[in-house]
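thread: overnight batch results

M.L. [08:02]
morning all. the overnight job finished for the chain we discussed friday. pasting input first so we're all looking at the same thing
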Amino acid sequence: MTEPGWELYRSFLAVMAEGSLSGAARALGLTQPTVGHHIAALEIALSAALFTRSQRGLTPTDTAQALLPHAQTMAAAADALRRVASGEGDEMRGTVRVTASEVVGAEVLPAILADFRERHPRVVVELSLSNRSEDLLRHQADIAVRMVKPTQGALIARYIGGVTLGLCAHRRYLERHGTPKSLEEVVHHALVGPDRDIQSLRGIPGIEDILTADVFSLRVDSHLAHLSALRAGYGISIAQLGLVRRDPDLVHLFPKEFAPELPVWLVMHEDLRTSRRVRALYDHLGVALGEYVGTKGVS
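M.L. [08:03]
and the structure it wrote out:
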C-alpha cells in the first residue's frame, strides 16, 4: 500500500478546521473536488471513514479525532522544514517563527520587530498570537515569549524580568463614576475580566483576594479586548503598566497596594542555537524586552 502523501493530510486538517469541503478548498486555494478526492484517497489508504455527512456539514469520526494531533504534528514539522530550507546558504535570510501572547504580540513586539527588520531586512518573521503555550519541542515555533518558566530540558530559556500589572482605568471613567478609595471598593465599579478562562486569574499574585469571577460586568477571554475596553473608558481592568504608561489618560490605581509581577521568559529550542538568524532575533528580543520590563535580562 502506498503511504499517504502530505497533501492528503493537509486537506484533512483543512476540513477538520473548516467543517466542509468548500471551506477547506477556499483555505487551501484548491477546488472542492480536489479536496474531496484527497479525503477519499486518505480514507482508502487508512481503511477507515474520517467524516460523516450531516445537515451541518462534515462530522469527524472517532478515527478522525484520534488522527488529528498526529496530523497537526506533521504540519508543524512541514513548517519547520520550510523555515530551515528558506535560510539555506545565507542564514541571515529566511524565516523565523515567533509565538507570544495576544497583548505582547500585538502591543509590544511590533515596534521591536520593526527595529529588527531595519537591521536584517532579508529575515521574514512569522508572528503567532496565542495565549496558549506553543510546543517548541515539536517545532511549532522557533522562539517563544512566555509568562511561565519552561521546564523541558531541550530548551534554552532566558529570564527577562517581571512585567508589572496593575488595576487601571481611563480618566474619563473615573470622572464619571469616581475613583475607588480602597481595593475593597473596586468591586462596586464596572470591571473587565475573563469569561470562561477564569484560570488566567490564578496566575496573578493576590488577585483572588480582590476579584472573583462573579464581579465582572464585561467578560471576555481576549486580553486585547480587555485593553481596548480599558482605553474606551468602560471600567477598571488589569493591565501591563508598560502599556498603561504610554497613554496619559490611563490611571494606575493603588500602585502601592496592588502591583503584582508576571515573569517574562524568552525561549528557543537548543537545536537552533547555531542558526544565525534565529539567534540574532532571540538576542534582539532579549535586549528589547528587557528594556520593556525595566531590566536588562540575563541568560
